[in-house]
Write a structure and sequence with these properties.
The protein is an all-alpha fold and about 140 residues long. It has four helices and no strands. Helix 1 runs antiparallel to helix 4. It is globular. It starts with a helix and ends with a helix.
């Protein structure tokens, strides 16, 4: 597994786990009553911050372990890595654009901050996850 693919896997795993944890923390509180009264800001910020840190740590540790197993392995990116990154970014950005449009509509309707923030949060999450899945598929099956 090449350097870039390891980073994609690390980000994908951490994104799925982070979103799942956040959803488990907030959803039960939102179901029972008025979702706009749920304390979501701190859990969302902690989830985002910890996901970034954990993703970096997982990538670093995985890279160290891979480097110990194959010291001659390279950490350099090649044209294929750049092409896959470009393709997966386009795929992921499509979902980010949809979330952004949803946020604009919610703002125009003067929706509560809860709905606006969650539309963007899950838009970022879907973008990261779908982009990561597209990268993994491209690494395993090729671009064409």
């Amino acid at each position: 597994m090449v350097y870039e693919e390891r980073n994609v896997w690390a980000g994908l795993i951490v994104s799925v786990v982070g979103v799942a944890i956040y959803t488990v923390l907030v959803l039960p509180r939102a179901i029972g009553g008025d979702p706009t009264q749920v304390d979501w800001v701190a859990p969302m910020l902690w989830t985002i911050g910890l996901s970034i840190v954990v993703s970096i740590v997982v990538s670093t540790v995985w890279g160290i372990v891979a480097g110990m197993r194959d010291p001659d392995g390279t950490n350099a990116s090649d044209q294929r890595d750049r092409d896959i990154a470009r393709m997966s970014n386009r795929v992921g950005q499509a979902f980010l654009v949809l979330a952004g449009l949803g946020v604009i509509v919610l703002c125009a309707l003067q929706a509560h901050w809860f709905w606006i923030a969650h539309t963007m949060f899950y838009g970022f999450a879907v973008s990261a996850i779908v982009g990561g899945v597209a990268s993994v598929i491209a690494y395993r099956r090729g671009l064409a």
